[in-house]
Amino acid sequence: MNRSDAENFLYREAALLDHKRLDAWLDLFSDDALYWIPANQSDYDPREHVSFVYDNMTLLKERIGRLTGEYCHAQQPPSSTLHTISNVEVEPIGPGRVRVRSNAVIYEFRNNAQRRFYPLQTFPAFCTHELREEDGHWRITLKKVALLNADGEIFDLSFLL
Amino acid sequence: MNSQPKRFDYAELAKPDRTHARIYTDPDIFHEEMEKIFRRSWVYVAHESEIPNPGDYVTTYIGLIPVIVTRDEAGKIHVLVNRCMHRGATVCPYEKGEAKTFTCPYHGWEYALDGRLNAVGLPRGYNPGEIDKDKLGLREAAKVGSYRGIIFASLDEVPDISLEEKLGPAIPILDAYMDLSPTGEIEVGKSGVYKHAYRGNWKIQVEGSVEGYHPIFTHHSAFETIGRTMGINPKSSFTGSGKTGLLGRDLGHGNNILEVYNYTDEQIRQRYPQAYIDLLKDAHGEKRAMAALRTRFNLVIFPNLAILEYQFRVTRPVQVDLSEVRIYHTMLKGLPEEFSAINLRRVREHEFFYGPAAFGGPDDYVAFERIQQGLVADEEAPWVLLNRGYTTEQIDAEGCRYGDLTQETQQRAPYYEYRRLMARTLEAV
């Protein structure tokens, strides 16, 4: 996988998220994948430190079920997001395996007419994707989103990054 | 706040079974609370595990007042107002760290870990009599005390009760929390801090920390996931029949507890490996070990601390309708390596439910914000109702009011202390 391939992969992933095609987004992940958003610092050991999100695929599917279900009060109305991706670097880490680093700026908005003043939130992040080739497709084995404001005050992060 | 606040009748605004919307929305009441509750009664500031060594410090707030909690060279803890005595700048800009001194960035005034003024910038410019270093140390909390590492302070005047009186029946509950560690020690915040904010009054979080009525509604989605992935049904604890056997209790002086689970011996054996149960029995004796293993609870130490399963939750009032919440994750100290799974479960279970991206927390905070949005309709609907189970409330052997966990005894509890503290005149304190 070269940089151009990696960019195409990340753009496609972002488009699936931003257009809420979550089944297709989940298909990008391997069965043993991990979806990780560290808290406080990007390099804390997740066994010794709590994260914002530390999902295996079972929990990630539960998360999506919750966010799109009837009882997620924090997502009423649901968030819209826009991902902008840059600074893509590719590093081979084994046969059929690469690590892709990128910077992302994620904008999030909830058009809440009752609230009127719900802010547009901005989340800049250092992203790491580890990908593995399976049957001719690249699949995500790790998606790590290290927020620039991981140690800051956050009102609400109840949407997918 | 320059003018003397308006006089409010707090017995009318905070009745035993209801509170007036105004106490959540009126800026004058908010400022009176900062004076009478936060400056002049016991307030949680930090846990000793955050500042284990001489020179360690954390910065926090007592109400609106920025403070530094330090450990000096001799190991003594000080709670210092983070405000240079010269022109008022904060002398420490960091959340935590270690230091030998604190130096103001504006004119180089330097303070020791105990608050003493060591030196001022360009001292030769002062004439004799213009500066008295002995009187210009950082202002220090009038009273500092701790129980099992939990540090409380009162900033302005000595409170009218001792820390032991303040904690009272909460003491065995604090013991049970710490006794899950074989050495009886925990570490607070080292394993993570969630920093939330919500647009609502601070008391909504205080009430919400021990809310036994809302979970099956607000946390329906989280409970479904717990049921599917962990094979347990948390809903059974929150049926609200009045007969769950789980209680809400008023522990006095505003403190209160919601029992979340009261495990049977069989459930304890399912939840914990026998070797760990034995470890605790050897360390603490049968009685203390079983008390620690049996109970899971949400405890409020009024006004700003809540201790929940794996967390110290600290509420900081910012404005009448803006609050900051810090959720400090806690780990058990002194666990032998073969029991690391016990602490790992504390990480994963905590992170599943709490925090701004978790399965439970965001739904609580949206509820808190929607309360604040609705409460502005105070002419149309002035009262917040806290009367569920009021007429069937009972008194236990320790003199504590109690009721079934959904019946709002624990939400009514803070307002007994609230009325007591708010009724005091500032001059009389």
From TrEMBL, chain A:
Keywords, comma-separated and alphabetical: Aromatic hydrocarbons catabolism, Dioxygenase, Oxidoreductase
A Pfam family that the UniProt record links to this protein: Ring_hydroxyl_B
GO biological process, one term: 3-phenylpropionate catabolic process
One GO MF term: dioxygenase activity
Keyword match Repeat: no
Keyword Oxidoreductase: yes
Highest taxon, organism lineage: Bacteria
PANTHER family xref list: BLR3401 PROTEIN
Similarity-based family: Belongs to the bacterial ring-hydroxylating dioxygenase beta subunit family.
Annotated protein name in UniProt: Benzoate 1,2-dioxygenase beta subunit
Automatic annotation (TrEMBL), chain B:
Pfam families: Rieske, Ring_hydroxyl_A
Gene3D superfamilies assigned to the protein according to its UniProt record, in alphabetical order: Naphthalene 1,2-dioxygenase Alpha Subunit, Chain A, domain 1 (3.90.380.10), Rieske [2Fe-2S] iron-sulphur domain (2.102.10.10)
Stretches assigned to the Rieske domain: 43-127
CDD domains noted in UniProt: Rieske_RO_Alpha_N
Entry's Gene Ontology molecular function annotations: 2 iron, 2 sulfur cluster binding; dioxygenase activity; iron ion binding
Keyword list, A-Z: 2Fe-2S, Dioxygenase, Iron, Iron-sulfur, Metal-binding, NAD, Oxidoreductase
Source domain of life: Bacteria
Family in the record: Belongs to the bacterial ring-hydroxylating dioxygenase alpha subunit family.
Matching PANTHER family: 3-PHENYLPROPIONATE_CINNAMIC ACID DIOXYGENASE SUBUNIT ALPHA, CHOLINE MONOOXYGENASE, CHLOROPLASTIC
Name the UniProt record assigns to this protein: Ring hydroxylating dioxygenase, alpha subunit/Rieske protein
Species for this entry: Aerosticca soli
